[in-house]
Amino acid sequence: MTSMIIRGVQPYGEAAQDVEISDGVIARISPAGSPTGSPASAAASQKVFDVELDAAGCVLLPGLVDLHTHLREPGREDSETIATGSRAAAKGGFTCVHAMANTAPVADTAGVVEQVWRRGVDADLVDVRPVGAVTVGLQGAQLAELGAMASSAAQVRVFSDDGLCVHDPLLMRRALEYVKAFDGVVAQHAQDPRLTEGAQMNEGELSGRLGLAGWPAVAEEAIIARDVLLAEHVDSRLHVCHVSTAGSVEVVRWAKARGIRVTAEATPHHLLLTEELVASFDPIYKVNPPLRREEDVMALREAVIDGTIDIIATDHAPHPREDKDCEWAAAAMGMIGLETALPIAAQVFIESGRMDWRQLCERMSVTPARIGRVADQGAVIEVGAPANLVVWDPAQTTVVTPAMFESKSANSPYLDRTFAGAVRHVVFRGRPTVVDGQVVSGEVAS
Amino acid sequence: MLGKHLLSAADLTRDQALLILDTTSELAAVTDRSVKKLPTLRGRTVVNLFFEDSTRTRLSFELAAKRLSADVITFSAKGSSVSKGESLKDTALTLEAMGADAVIIRHGASGAPERLATAGWIDGAVLNAGDGTHEHPTQALLDAYTLRRHTRDGQGDLSGVRVVIVGDVLHSRVARSNVLLLQTLGADVTLVAPPTLLPVGVENWPCKVSYHLDDVLPDADAVMMLRVQAERMAGAYFPSTLEYSRMYGLDARRMALMSPDAIVMHPGPMNRGLEISADVADADRAVVVEQVANGVNVRMACLYLLLGGASSEGDGSQ
Q1: Any A CB within 8 A of B85 CB
Q2: A208/B200 touch (CB, cutoff 8 Å), yes or no
């Protein structure tokens, strides 16, 4: 196994330390510049590491965990593969992603989820945790074999028809009940289908002016309200994907106050961008749920800060160029997000002084790992903890260009933007996957 | 001068709108001659790019361009990229390769003209001939021109002219462009529709809103009836066409509530018996046919002003 030292790094942005890693775990944390190795060893200061990473002035965080990633494989390998998506994730500071089930074929059997899981193991850059579909073929008609997926090699714990809402209240109830047997969670894409037929953007004054069919906030809020009551009724775990409206935040807050076991996520784009961008008719801004109003963005930020929204998840949704190089109505919905998530979160929550790094780690690593029941991820940085780590350099900048993406797609709404800070190094299971901002695969010696 | 493109009625300042209307008046004189042709756009290529069926708008633009001596190509691309035909981008690149000086586009997707103008696919001027449920600026211009003839003797703006627009505002590009342009020209606009057919946020539009047609008819200088599509019933916008007609249709009884000088307008094609009864459609005060004639002249004015009236590049004349 690789032995490694990260020199001068500041865990959670606190005091500078030298962090030693061996056998895939954190072996030693000592004040920066102190002799390395075991103090008992006379040759300690001479200890040689396979990999030495300089990280003076940088922040050390547990590797990020994304609960909502579209890797497109199998079926749409023209937009992303498990290998390219893993590279994008690593570059963005992630050490674990959850691959959504809306592939072709749909990840609704043990066979498909095991295949996705194995391809993730082969790529070997992040833990790829398959999400299982709730219903067969995402059709919303019949429960998929959730138990088979849970007991497969992929050990699925998160189930979602994401992209589509489990709209039938009876099926949703049954799914919530059924997953209790293996401590699973149903991650709901909250969107009433009837209220959003043909919907193109947030419904409001702007949609009326632009003549684009509206996606009303109530179509999300009504489903969340129903689902939290169902979760309460059957005492199960509900997770709400990509919460996008101020009203949804109120519903989730109410449910939590009532003791309902609900968790919720917000995406970086819903925390940063507003519907005004749609006025350009540039489909790069077309996403589901749609970009909302400024007041929604502000409510989501407050909810992330106070914990009503538990986690930030990317909803990384790669699309080939032709699916965005067209008129608005014809364009695909979605944006890539793995490689810009941490820069955005740092800008919105750290630079603004609204959160410290420990709190942000809760939202981007600890809690998503807990919701997904992922062992060895989202651990506190301490001796003996699994070495899944990201080194963030606040002195650098992330300049978003099409060329920067490891993702196979470039449908990012942030092109030409510059964010303060950059992911510098990433350590996955005790070995470097990103060094000085570049993805490295396999064992790397210094 | 106008901008490079005409995408939205909101693009036009009051002065620009008046310039178009005044130019239309001048060009109308040409239309009245026996030889209805000007050499202005000789050597320029104008493309009619129609992704949606609209015979009347297409013919109107075609005639307008021909009267200005432009070379006119009509490209009927029914079935856009949505239905797996050629994409808007590839169509645009084809037209660019053919040297189009202006592209007149009708498209079922809101914002398609904006996309054509700004995505970097073509260099020519883009005229919006109706996009989805967004805008139809030349319809608003021809309506303004018609209103000005009947209420302002063909001069100046529309200050204080009271216009009632009735019908499916939610899905109407005509209503959106008219609200914007008529407001720019100083008119006083009232929208009338069932609440289901008004867009969210309409209370913040620069106009008044009413659910009751009878209440607003007596004060109107003009009533503009919008086409209502019976298939809207599928979306539960109204219970039946009969109920719609009873509550929002313009019939002889309602026409009698209007002031004697007030005119009735309709962008066509009319659904006789639905939003407008036959006796109203054929009444003297109905100016529907005149709107069509004015449409050609307004579109001549737009092409003339957008293409600068100059000959093609290199000629040097102005």
Answers
A1: no
A2: yes
